[in-house]
Amino acid sequence: METAVRQSPDQAAAPAAGAYRNLVMATLGFTLTFWAWNLIAPMSSDYKDRLGLSSFQQSLLVAVPVLVGSLGRIPVGALTDKYGARLMFPLVSALTVVPVLLLIPAKDSYGAMLAVGFLLGLGGTTFAIGIPLVNSWFPPSERGLALGVFGMGMGGVALSGYFTPRIAEHGDNLPFLVVAGALVVYAALAAVLVNDRPGRQVPTDTLAHRLGEAGRLRVTWELSALYAIGFGGIVAFGVYLPTYLKTWYELSPTDAGTKAAGFALVTVVFRPIGGWLSDRMHPALVSSAALGVAALMAIVQAFDPKLMPGGTIALLIMAAGLGTASGSVFALVSQVTPQAKVGSVTGIVGAMGGLGGFVPPLVMGAIYSAKGSYSIGFMLLSDLALAGCVYAYGRMRNIQRDT
Asked: What is d(CA 51, CA 58) in angstroms, rounded to the nearest whole number?
């Protein structure tokens, strides 16, 4: 599929009644479930001490829900195509309550924590529910910004990182009870307030067939590669930036965490900006420019500038580029994917983005262990971002824009 899907006249008009209500509910649900998805990571040091874990065991404990949540977007996206977000949002939100509460009795067993972490991955799948919902309610002229606003829900990971340990200071089990309660309330509200757009196309074929069709679209894998660079870079820095700042710049854990939170905040803010820009020019051009900026800043950081001001400026501009790219890529998804397949394609693209974030930290750590420097790692990042920049401009901008 290499041409944009033409929209019907009613889709090309102003947003339908209920569009903004559904956008708010989708963004809120995305934020809360992503908070739940990330409940283990902020507490991983406590689990390491309590259970006597090695560094590898600690990393595995953090990685399991992320990996499951990323891969789980593939079937959940296809199920959303079939059954709609009106069913899937409250259902997945309510089911996520179960592993959140199971973290309480599981906290004294590593095996139990891994099993619960596997189930907790369900919270990371709501991305593939919200994208087709928001995409269907907004016309092409406003879809990029709307999808970017929805994408700000990934800030739930940052909220978890900041608030979860602070809530835990008032009681070990309190964070899980608070998040579970919030999810129950949201699931009840979503059952009433989330609606699929009238006239939504409902596929009649099987789940396997729909996933197979989405997988056979060339554009699915092109978009997956671009999203793996953009969003994957965000995930990678979210995971590894505190370690990098502590190791290379010798910051305290608190200072490193604060600066890493600033990086995450910039990516969240620039995601809707990427969508907004994509409403005004071809999203492939926005993606190309954003990845080009990220590549340039990665080269600057490879030369190990002082943290103040050079390193800080380079990292924040890099965050802006990656955030913009992650927003513009999904504006491109909405233009080149049939509405009935948006969930399936979103699931695959979202999964690749999540998985793309876990290779760079391993590479960065391995290179530092072998060479005592992060420069090679940043140069590799610049190469990937530059490749995405060139491909987006040379190939993806030739895909026609919706009218």
From this structure: 10
Is residue 63 within 8 Å of 83, Cβ to Cβ? no
C-alpha distance from residue 221 to each of 176, 202, 227, 234, 298 (Å): 37, 24, 10, 19, 25
Enumerate the H helices of 126-252 as residue ranges. 127-137, 140-151, 155-168, 174-193, 207-216, 218-248
C-alpha radius of gyration, the chain, whole number: 20
pTM of the model: 0.76
Indicate the DSSP class of residue 5. Answer: P
To which residue do tokens 């009870």 refer?
A: 177
How high does pLDDT run on average in the chain?
A: 83
Report which residue type is found at 353.
G
| CA dist 6 → 140, 143, 145, 398, 402 (Å) | 10, 14, 19, 16, 6
Q: Which two tokens stand for residue 314?
A: 């380079």
279-290 as b/e: b if 16+ CB within 10 A: beebbbbbbbbb
- The Cα angle at residue 352 between residues 347 and 353, in degrees rounded to 5: 100
Q: Give the residue, 188 or 374, on which the prediction is more confident.
A: 188
DSSP 126: T
User: Are 231 and 330 spatial neighbours (Cβ–Cβ below 8 Å)?
Assistant: no
Q: Which tokens go with 204?
A: 């009649």
The single-letter DSSP state of residue 197 is P
* pLDDT of residue 273 exceeding 80: yes
Q: Are 97 and 72 in contact (CB under 8 A)?
A: no
State the alpha helices, DSSP H only, in 84-154: 85-106, 110-120, 127-137, 140-151
State the distance between the two ends of the chain, measured CA to CA, in whole angstroms. Answer: 17
**Phi first, then psi: what are they for 95, rounded to 5°?**
-65, -30
What string of DSSP letters covers 260-322? HHHHHHHHHHHHHHHHHHHTTS-HHHHHHHHHHHHHHHHHHHHT---IIIIIHHHHHHHHHHH
